[in-house]
């Protein structure tokens, strides 16, 4: 996987969350693809460090990311034809198989999971709102210095 500095910085910022993050939207279709490709490569390499009885979990995670990439077009939007293929694949798979989707235009997430004879669809908003930021149980990060 070849990346330029901007794409590399994007991956670092979104995987490792360093103390100084960009103060704006750094999303581009190219950065998205680089991030997803890096995540898939990390998962596949991680498999070598897992005991063999847990391979199925790692393989399932890799399949989930592959499906997410397959469902998108080159601009990062969901492609109807590709999404249909993903749904068909999930329908033919066993329980527990899933695909996460990012609906870019609405900054929302959709998570589809296969359960026995059905597919569960979960949706969630990815943007923070004031109610989330002001809640007492919110996640907080503090850095020394």
Automatic annotation (TrEMBL):
InterPro entries in the cross-refs: DUF6606 (IPR046541)
The DUF6606 domain, residue ranges: 11-145
Official protein name in the record: DUF6606 domain-containing protein
């Amino acid at each position: 996987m070849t990346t330029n500095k901007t794409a590399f910085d994007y991956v670092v910022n979104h995987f490792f969350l360093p103390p100084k993050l960009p103060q704006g939207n750094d999303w581009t279709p190219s950065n998205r693809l680089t991030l997803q490709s890096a995540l898939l490569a990390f998962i596949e390499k991680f498999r070598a460090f897992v005991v063999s009885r847990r391979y199925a979990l790692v393989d399932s995670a890799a399949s989930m990311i592959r499906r997410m990439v397959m469902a998108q077009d080159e601009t990062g939007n969901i492609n109807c034809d590709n999404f249909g293929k993903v749904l068909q694949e999930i329908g033919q798979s066993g329980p527990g198989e899933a695909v996460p989707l990012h609906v870019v235009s609405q900054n929302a997430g959709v998570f589809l999971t296969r359960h026995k004879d059905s597919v569960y669809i979960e949706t969630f908003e990815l943007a923070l709102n004031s109610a989330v930021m002001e809640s007492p149980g919110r996640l907080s990060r503090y850095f020394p210095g």
